[in-house]
Amino acid sequence: MTATLLDGKATAAEIKDELRIRVKALAERGIIPGLGTVLVGADPGSQAYVNGKHRDCAEVGIASIRRELPADATQQQVDDVLAELNADPACHGYIVQLPLPAHLDTQRVLELIDPDKDADGLHPVNLGRLVLGYDGPLPCTPRGIVELLRRHDVALRGATVAVVGRGNTVGRPLGLLLTRRSENATVTLCHTGTLDLAAHTRAADIVIVAAGVPGLLTAEMINPGAVVVDVGITRVIGADGKGRYTGDVDPEVAETAGALVPMPGGVGPMTRAMLLTNVVERAERD
Ligand SMILES: Nc1nc2c(c(=O)[nH]1)N[C@@H](CN(C=O)c1ccc(C(=O)N[C@@H](CCC(=O)O)C(=O)O)cc1)CN2
């Protein structure tokens, strides 16, 4: 391996240390930040992610508010839980764990979250604020990627960045974030309709892959020395019959890249740290 690994787990731990201090300062003002989670169904992956969020809260002193509904919950039951959290003064921000069961209307659910309590930054009002360059909670994964690169001195100003994937949670908001005046990167947003993906990734200083296609980015597709960020996380069944998570970046990329944000241990822990940051920032505005 030649690439320097940019360790998201260690950076997230640093951020949690900083948040612990800010949470203590809030406590002195009589404010305890509260994060709510809404989990519908019993998908083991989603359960593990929600459990992780509550472990993180306990680590930094944020209060946890958990709401769980069965997989066959009606839209009305979900709407009622959101109305309850919107009205709860102890809840500074909350998330609805995605994906939701197919019979539920994800767009409606995201729109019912009070934009002021939108810890994930995925409400249309907050994504609109991002488009317009206004302040607001930022989506956690894009924010985590930018923060990780910043803390590892990866220059964005003037850099060319290929973002692969145009989803609403990562690719599209990431493109917006990277092209803000404060970041000033030049972004090419690639997607399934892109004709020559490798031509775009090869031309980039930084390649960020959030396509959900295991091994999509191979070593021949990058400029030697490029910075590569693996956002993919797909559950696959290995040759041993056991399930495991795999990223969008082929392992051989580590021989050609200058730096690599790996999966696991890269973007995932940063996503969790940014969720806590969004909640603390919201509580600091009280
Ligand atoms: N409402 C939301 N739903 C979902 C989001 C989200 O940001 N908001 N993102 C993903 C799931 N997710 C958080 O919810 C998440 C996924 C993975 C990780 C993580 O730390 N992964 C590890 C590897 C896997 C593991 O060891 O379990 C890593 O990258 O090191 C954190 C959060 C979809 N749903």
Strand content: 15-25%
Helix content: 25-40%
Largest sheet: 6 strands, parallel
CATH superfamily of the largest domain: NAD(P)-binding Rossmann-like Domain
CATH architecture verdict of the largest domain = 3-Layer(aba) Sandwich
Helical segment count: 9
The radius of gyration computed from the alpha-carbon positions, rounded to a whole number of angstroms, is: 19 Å
Name of the top-level CATH class of the largest domain: Alpha Beta
Number of extended strands = 11
Quaternary status of these chains? single chain
Number of domains: 2
Query: What ligands does this structure carry?
Result: the ligand Nc1nc2c(c(=O)[nH]1)N[C@@H](CN(C=O)c1ccc(C(=O)N[C@@H](CCC(=O)O)C(=O)O)cc1)CN2
Write the CATH fold name of the largest domain.
Answer: Rossmann fold
Distance from N terminus to C terminus (CA atoms, Å) equals: 48 Å
Q: pLDDT below 50 for ≥5 consecutive residues: which ranges?
A: none
Report strand order across the widest sheet: 1-11-8-7-5-6
Helix-strand pattern = EHEHEHEHHHEHEHEEEEEH
